[in-house]
Write a structure and sequence with these properties.
58 residues; mainly alpha; rod-shaped
């Protein structure tokens, strides 16, 4: 998912450099949304990992 966010970011940068404002704006928006989804899933995964605990049978 982070890979796709970076791909859309690169597309936005290239499109912005070439003067395609609408395409750059859309690609940057998509990259931002995908990045925030990745961040939310990562944080939820991290919290679930620490909440699970690792007590080995004592």
């Amino acid at each position: 998912m982070l890979y796709y966010a970076l791909v859309f970011l690169v597309i936005a940068l290239v499109a912005g450099f070439l003067g395609f404002g609408g395409v750059a704006f859309a690609a940057a928006g998509i990259a931002k949304i995908i990045f925030y989804i990745f961040l939310a899933v990562f944080l939820i995964s991290l919290i679930m990992h620490f909440a699970r605990g690792t007590s080995r049978g004592v």
